[in-house]
Amino acid sequence: MSKDGSHKHDVKRTRLRADRERRGIPHEQADEAATEEPRQDNPQQDDAPAELAPTSLSKGSRSMDDPIPDNIIELRSAAFTDHTLIPNRFAHDGDNASPPLQWTPPPEGTEELVLVCEDRDAPDGTFVHWVATGISPEVNELPEGKLPDGVTQGRNSWGGTGWDGPAPPVGDDPHRYFFRLYAVDEPLGLGADATADQVHDAVRGHKLAAGTLVGLFGR
């Protein structure tokens, strides 16, 4: 039985939504139907966790082991919507372009925005695809394939810096890629070699708000 927030539930919902959109059902109706059908097939149990815990603590990153702030930033992309498939041009075997991201204004007092993208379904634990720090609180988007002035990109689990796109094992169910944007109350001063773990450590105790966007990709 798949539960809301589980990998199987997310994959099933994504496939149902894609099927309905192919049949010409408007996006909002397709999203609502795709969310409701798995719940009808597998009703939520009373003792089910309200929020999915991290899948693992890995060599790649400690990932989402921090609480979500009360203030939420709406993080979105013009290339895909939340819990839908990431287009192939952003994949490691595609054009490997970083996806465009947009977000709502952070709260007053924000000194810096930082971004991490992680695959939480990787076979060896969380795999880091993107670390970007030093994003000005005046900035509200990252264009496709490029970054605004002043943004510093950290290390990913491929061993390089900047964005390196999805490349899950062939035949796996689509993996989930969590894009996480943090608003913090002081400049973090992280350099080009910063890792996702260093970002998670640095923002702890300084988060004013956060936003999450999940994309799926399979081969």
Automatic annotation (TrEMBL):
InterPro entries: PEBP, PEBP-like_sf, YbhB_YbcL/LppC-like
Biased composition (Basic and acidic residues): 16-40
Pfam families: PBP
Region entry Disordered, spans: 1-69
Organism superkingdom: Bacteria
Residues that span the membrane, as ranges: none
Family: Belongs to the UPF0098 family.
Name of the featured protein: Phospholipid-binding protein, PBP family
Species, as recorded: Actinokineospora alba
